[in-house]
Write a structure and sequence with these properties.
Blueprint lengths: L22 H8 L10 H8 L1 H22 L4 H22 L5 E5 L6 H8 L12 H8 L5 E9 L3 E8 L4 E5 L2 E5 L5 E3 L11 E3 L7 H8 L3 H4 L2 E7 L3 E6 L4 E3 L5 H15 L6 E5 L7 E4 L20
Parallel strand pairs: 1-3, 4-7, 7-8, 10-11
Antiparallel strand pairs: 2-3, 4-5, 5-6, 8-9, 9-10, 11-12
């Protein structure tokens, strides 16, 4: 007969002793006072976000490889194509936004030719506003003779504004047979259309232009003589000869020219020296006045009696 299978009885476990100390607690008691090692925060973050960490590392690796390839001229055409495409997109965006030059306004221009100003500005209708360089345009405009200073600005969305301060005509300057209009600082303004400035005093001499303001200011201190001044010639780079409206030449000294000029006005008020028949008034000596008289006029030959006209036979 087959043996009967007997059901095994479950093992009998002893009841848990309430006073028994757990193993972990024992090791904790044994290691009391000893700090347990904890992993760094970044390592714990990597452990929790393994996928994100691997993706970041891959991106850095690819970026480094791309930078190395660019430096090694590998893929240069791709970089150039990308740059050109970006610039083209940027241009189309500006055009679509209306950021193109459609108007130029100028303030303070009186004598400067408009064509010269636009040529120096270097911009045309339809140019991209953001590609326009105001500083370079200002430097070119200030090279124009009439322009003393300029300010150039871009005004969104489509305008360029120019503010010009022009030079003031001060005198006519002659040097090496060349005649030009200068300002108070001696800067040349123009050498064209000088007929309208013929009433200005003329300064003659290679080094006369930058010294013109000091001389004319000194002459203006004596108004009664200053209104008769027509020209001043620089002599030897040291002193001035002043030409009056009646052709008289006044030779000023190298030093103390203002004192000599005032002394001439005082003498003229008493003796009418300037209107006498003199050619030169020499003031170079501080204690005397030297006059060079006009040469005596030669006597005119007696008029001949006209002969009667005889009709030929």
């Amino acid at each position: 007969m087959p043996a009967l299978a007997t059901k095994a009885k479950p093992p009998v476990r002893a009841p848990r002793d309430p006073n028994r100390v757990p193993r972990d607690a024992k090791s904790a008691r044994g290691n009391r006072g000893v700090s347990r090692w904890q992993p760094p925060r970044w390592l714990r973050f990597v452990g929790r976000h393994k996928v994100a960490a691997l993706a970041s590392i891959s991106a850095l690796a690819l970026g480094g490889a791309g930078a190395w390839a660019w430096q090694a001229d590998v893929g240069t055409s791709a970089v150039a194509w990308s740059r050109a495409a970006s610039q083209d997109a940027f241009v189309r965006l500006q055009v679509a936004s209306g950021l193109v030059v459609s108007d130029v306004t100028v303030e303070g221009r009186t004598e400067t030719a408009g064509a010269d100003l636009l040529a120096a500005l270097g911009v045309q209708r339809g140019d991209l506003l953001m590609r326009f360089d105001p500083d370079a345009a200002r430097a070119r405009i200030e090279q124009l003779g009439w322009v003393r200073s300029a300010m150039v600005s871009r005004l969104l969305p489509n305008r360029i504004h120019v503010e010009v301060t022009e030079r003031r005509p001060f005198a006519l300057w002659q040097s090496d047979r060349r005649l030009a209009l200068i300002d108070r600082e001696g800067a040349v303004i123009t050498d064209r259309g000088l007929g309208q400035f013929s009433s200005l005093p003329m300064i003659v001499g290679a080094d006369a232009a930058p010294l013109a303001a000091a001389l004319l200011d000194m002459l203006a201190q004596v108004p009664v003589l200053n209104v008769r001044v027509r020209a001043a010639v620089r002599v030897g780079g040291r002193r001035w000869d002043v030409h009056l409206d009646n052709g008289v030449v006044v030779k000023l000294p190298e030093k103390a020219a203002a004192v000599a000029w005032a002394r001439l006005a005082e003498l003229d008020s008493h003796y009418r020296v300037v209107d006498r028949a003199v050619m030169v008034i020499d003031l170079r000596l501080p204690d005397r006045l030297v006059l060079r008289l006009e040469p005596p006029a030669s006597p005119k030959p007696p008029a001949q009696k006209p002969q009667p006209f005889v009709r030929p036979a």
